[in-house]
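Structure first, sequence second, as always.
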């Protein structure tokens, strides 16, 4: 063996599972000692001292091993992250700028002929909002796909079982223990720490379970309600785009023109006053979206899970309704 390899081994010692000083062997020795602490009570004093020194070294070595293992896994193991069950990967939706602007201008001209044509800056701002709206709908599609997967169902079932298990453990730990006085300091250190750790684990499990249960409700919703929530999000952003312009005086018509141009709400032909009926339909959608308690969760979830990135299978927006 070369000098370099010897130095390398000295600087990077590892704890092998089968080694007599490995973590598993150390733990076995510690357990044997704890299970029969008085087995060597009458042994020779020198041997007893040697064993005690060995036990101390084992404890230190094992604690070091456990601490090192925990610190190496902090990023992934400290908390539960149920969001890892799904991935929302988006690229820019297939929405052409020229087509959006043309549809927006045509709707606006038919609904309010006297209104000045919007500036290119206003149209660009509205187009960016339309892209965001399409991304949010695509994010919802990805999340629903994950919710309907077998992995999601197994995860929720497992979380429910673990929550029930730790509820039982918690009740057992809280059971009135009549501990003798000589055990009081031990109880304060170990039992209270165990209760605190168990409570922390139970809290994480309950949080993850509730998170998945809330997401389960999304898969039961129709596309119409999701589109309405996305439209509501757009309705709150559009006023900033059109402020201090003539369009700010007709916000309902602008929102309807936006929904039509971005193809967020299907167009239905009417014998007369087509634009006016469409405006009323958009108003009704916004009203229902504001009243929907479930919808608030949808909007928040979609916002939190919308970001830029590659999408495996791009989907075109719905075909023109008019």
């Amino acid at each position: 063996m070369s000098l370099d390899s010897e130095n390398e081994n000295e600087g990077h010692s590892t704890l092998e599972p089968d080694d007599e000083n490995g973590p598993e062997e150390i733990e076995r020795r510690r357990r044997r000692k704890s299970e029969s602490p008085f087995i060597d009570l009458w042994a020779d004093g020198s041997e007893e001292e040697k064993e005690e020194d060995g036990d101390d070294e084992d404890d230190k070595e094992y604690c070091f091993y456990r601490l090192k293992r925990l610190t190496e896994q902090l990023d992934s193991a400290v908390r539960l992250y149920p969001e890892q069950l799904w991935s929302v990967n988006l690229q820019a939706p297939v929405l052409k700028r020229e087509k959006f602007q043309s549809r927006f201008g045509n709707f606006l001209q038919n609904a309010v002929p006297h209104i000045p044509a919007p500036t290119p800056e206003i149209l660009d701002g509205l187009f960016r909002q339309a892209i965001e709206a399409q991304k949010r709908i695509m994010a919802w599609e990805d999340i629903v796909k994950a919710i309907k997967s077998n992995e999601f169902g197994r995860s929720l079932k497992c979380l429910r079982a673990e929550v029930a298990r730790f509820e039982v453990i918690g009740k057992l730990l809280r059971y009135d223990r009549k501990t003798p006085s000589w055990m009081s300091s031990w109880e304060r250190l170990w039992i209270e720490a165990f209760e605190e750790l168990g409570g922390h684990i139970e809290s994480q499990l309950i949080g993850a379970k509730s998170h998945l249960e809330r997401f389960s409700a999304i898969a039961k919703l129709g596309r119409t309600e999701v589109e309405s929530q996305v439209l509501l999000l757009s309705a709150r952003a559009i006023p900033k785009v059109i402020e201090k312009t003539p369009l700010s005086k007709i916000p309902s018509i602008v929102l309807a023109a936006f929904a039509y141009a971005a193809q967020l709400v299907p167009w239905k032909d009417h014998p007369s006053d087509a634009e006016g009926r469409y405006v009323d339909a958009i108003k009704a959608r916004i009203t229902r979206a504001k009243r929907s308690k479930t919808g608030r969760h949808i909007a928040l979830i979609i916002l939190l899970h919308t970001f830029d990135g590659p999408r495996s299978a791009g989907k075109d927006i719905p075909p023109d309704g008019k």
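Margin note: Residues 184-218 form the longest helix (35 residues).
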